[in-house]
Amino acid sequence: MRFLSIMAVLAALTFHGLPAMGASVHIPTKPPAVPLAVRSPYLNSWLQCDSECNLPGSWPRFWTSQVQGWQGFVAVDGAVYNWLGAAPGPSNVNQLSLEYTSTRSIFTFDVNGKVNLTVTFLSPVYPDDLGRQSQQFSYITASAISTDGSSHKVQVYMDVSGEWASGDLSQVINWDHNTSGNLSYHKFFRANQAQFSESGEIASWGTWYLSTDSTDGLTWQIGQDTAVRTQFTNNQALSNTKDSDFRAVQTNWPVFAFAHDLGDVQSTSVERVFTLGLIQDEVIDFAGQSGSLAPVPGLWSSFYTNDLSAVVAFYNDYQHATAVSNELDQRIQSDSEAAGGQDYSTITTLTVRQTFGALQFAGTLSKPYIFLKEISSNSDIQTVDVIFPAFPIFVYLNATLTKYLLDPLYENQESGAYPNAYAEHDLGTFPVAKGYPAGNDEAMPLEECGNMIIMTLSYAQHTGDVGYLTAHYPKLSQWAEFLVNDSLIPSNQLSTDDFAGTLANQTNLALKGIIGLKAMSQIANLTGNDDKFGAIAHDYLTKWKGLAINTNANPPHTTLSYGDNNSHGLLYNIYTDKLLNLNFVDQSIYDMQSAFYPTVALEYAVPLDTRHNWAKSDWEMFAAAVASKDTQTMFISKLAKWIGATSTNRPMTDLFDAAAGGFPSNGPTFVARPVMGGTFALLALPK
């Protein structure tokens, strides 16, 4: 278990002496940013890491970098210390260690040599449980234990500010405190609810809840930040009162606080649990089968009678969440180590919460949907070429999730609301999935046709749902006809790497279309239709090899575009030949590329192509998954090294400088994007 690793570290620290202040141990490495509460596009809070990843003294931040006020104190024998946030006053505890797993970020602190405080941020991932996964809530636990053999009086405090409820800090928020059974909770929300609107990417509608157990020794308070925090630092307890002056987020900064008195803490740890999250009745505005916009409920509402029952159920589910998260953490850790060693698990375990944190679960039990936000690039909703790099994680965890992502795209296009012959790029700007009745979406025709065909076949292969192929065969065959016309000699167009601009005759893009035709051949055979595509795919592949490979190079390799022998690029689209088990592309092509990549590798990665030194971490793992063992190890070790060394300090970017390790100079800044699900490319391959 990963839990044992942190216990071993703490034992070593106890034996050898505590580290110097600020010299925190990082397990398995120091990430660019630490996921704290990350379960949806709107519950997406991180600790940004500079030279260290120290929680005390730092404000947690939304993925945009906007501060989200979140403060934690701990009192030991009347002396108060800061374990979370940057409020003035108490000194910081000494952070001993940070460990991340697929679902947890675990911080351990020494409090004045007397007590160890372990704080765990748990954002569960339930790939097989739609009800639980649909809730936009996370757990925070604080556990204290004496380390000097003596008994100590310990109190733990936590608050959040109104910054969570509005990206526009001038907006007035309302609030309340109440109890339900064993639960004590604060709720707060914008007075002016603006459904399906955002400010600074933060939702302008919904109600936030901070909850904890109503045990003996619990106190609470709602009021001005300085007043509430001073109340605790002076008294180690709160006043059980609420400010009645509803006001703007930035006006005397209202905060919502709890404090637990843990009593006399000795050699047995004492733990308290908090939950934080957001309830939204309707989550997406979607133009589906009717072609007209209509609100879609949060999927959570099919499982819980109202918001309070959902809040209570999530809190009371903590033991189950812990057990399921332990199992998933261990599964991903062990599978990753078996596939690619510890370096590979360093990568995969960092990307799970980030990927699922871009998903909004919506609809009903009879018709569930997953809507994806293209975080940080342009906030599109249901971007096909963002779902595509992410989907290896869904193949690995539960292939049916792919269907729930594809369904909105099929519904919108099959309604007749999209006029183009090729596949739609996206459905609009999150959270409004209006589609493009004028056909004026960002055009990536070959890219998206190939992606839709490949992902649809993959879903059917893993689930046996041939009926899904039959239901969508008219649209699939329409897209395949487009590939017949455009895939061998691609016109001047964008690929998914649109930041690099348009280009004609793209070698890698052409291969996607050709593999798409081979996939369509399988779909035709599975559904009992005439296969018009298999022979064309084989003919195109033969011709592609003559156009795409620089045979005079030493070593030979594919080019970025046909005939440009001074160019090269990462041939990541070859991956789906193995993923779909097509046995279509010659093994010699895989071997050729495996021999070539090490000759152009830079410090942290193989550049995407010869236009820049930029690397895409998702595509690095696509290429690694089908490379020779030595080349695969090279890809993995370089990316794992980058995670611990990069100068970026935002949620893991998928675009960086392969030589310097920072964000690309004069390029876009991508952060927190769900494409990092592509790091599961090795684990998604057929066994």
Automatic annotation (TrEMBL):
Residues 341-683 form the Glutaminase A central domain. Residues 1-22 form the signal peptide. GO terms for biological process: carbohydrate metabolic process. Keywords: Signal. The keyword Protein biosynthesis does not apply. It comes from the Eukaryota. Residues 103-335 form the Glutaminase A N-terminal domain. The keyword Signal applies. This is Glutaminase A. It comes from Podospora appendiculata.
